[in-house]
From TrEMBL:
Species name: Thermococcus cleftensis (strain DSM 27260 / KACC 17922 / CL1)
The protein, known as: Flippase-like domain-containing protein
Topology relative to the membrane: Multi-pass membrane protein
Keyword entries, A-Z: Cell membrane, Membrane, Transmembrane, Transmembrane helix
Family of this protein: Belongs to the UPF0104 family.
Superkingdom of the organism of origin: Archaea
Cellular component GO terms held in the UniProt record: plasma membrane
NCBIfam families reported in the protein's UniProt record: flippase-like domain
Transmembrane intervals: 6-26, 93-112, 118-141, 162-179, 191-215, 227-247, 253-273
Length: 279
């Protein structure tokens, strides 16, 4: 059934995925500028592509990719690992806003309130980090054993007060998640299935949650099983659910791993990773 998918929609699904990667790079660049550091956008995009490959081949979500991102900009742009770590963590904090909005959109399809306690716990944790931001930043820098100047510390602390930066970063994060939903919509359209946007939002959130709880490299087996189960639970025929899942994972896992591995080999990423492992 996968072979019957429309190539036009498949191409557009690929396009949305890699436009998202570029947007991630732009957002990271803006946050780094906010702490007084800068790096070429193309280097940041390559670091993200290579980190996707590492995330896909190492156990637990983001276990290797984020470390590679930090090492990459440390070597290529002379940015301390602790500063890079804080910028990545700050990106994640800002990203929770569109994710929360997406969650609310998809919640109309849930038949129970069981996810609510977990959601409140996550929101409470994010709020605590936001309130105790300076202490959280200093703890992160100690964990990464990265000495920085007081001026750099002031710039990191001031991120929370940079309203223009935060608005732009949240807008970019929202664009990424809209593209994520659009990619899933295109994949379902490739099979002639025109699902509602709220249902697609639910699938996107399910994808995210399965990825977060997965302990296998790239969530292999767990994400596929969870996504197929979610689709069939809501009435999608099993054969069609399997086809949608396989095509989605081909775009977001197989192809992204191939591209990330190619970037890793061609851009000196292997040496960066080896140096990181030796530390």
């Amino acid at each position: 059934m996968v072979s019957a998918a429309s190539l036009r929609y498949l191409f557009l699904a690929f396009l949305t995925y890699y436009v998202s990667v570029v947007i991630y790079g732009i957002r990271w660049k803006l946050v780094l500028r906010g702490v007084g550091r800068d790096a070429p956008l193309w280097e940041l995009v390559k670091a993200i592509l290579a980190s996707i490959f590492m995330n896909n081949v190492t156990p637990m979500s983001r276990s290797g990719g984020e470390l590679l991102r930090m090492a990459w900009v440390s070597k290529r742009a002379n940015i301390p690992a602790g500063v890079s770590a804080v910028s990545i963590i700050y990106e994640r904090i800002l990203e929770t806003i569109p994710v929360f909005a997406l969650f609310l959109l998809g919640m109309s399809y849930f038949s129970s309130d069981e996810p609510l306690p977990f959601l409140l716990f996550v929101v409470g944790g994010i709020a605590l980090i936001w309130i105790k931001w300076d202490a959280f930043v200093r703890l992160s820098l100690r964990l990464f054993r990265t000495p920085i100047t007081e001026e750099e510390m002031d710039r990191i602390s001031s991120l929370r007060g940079m309203h223009n930066l935060n608005i732009i970063a949240i807008a970019l994060s929202s664009a990424v998640w809209l593209l994520d939903v659009a990619r899933l919509k295109l994949i379902t359209l490739a099979f002639g299935l025109n699902l509602t946007w709220s249902f697609i939002a639910l699938i996107s959130i399910a994808n995210l949650l399965f990825g977060l709880v997965a302990f296998t490299p790239g969530g292999v087996g767990i994400i596929e099983g969870g996504l197929i189960g979610t689709l069939t639970y809501f009435g999608i025929p099993t054969a069609l659910a399997v086809s949608i899942t396989l095509l989605e994972r081909f775009v977001s896992y197989v192809a992204s791993s191939i591209v990330g591995f190619a970037v890793l080999l061609s851009s000196g990423g292997v040496e960066i990773w080896k140096a990181l492992k030796s530390q």
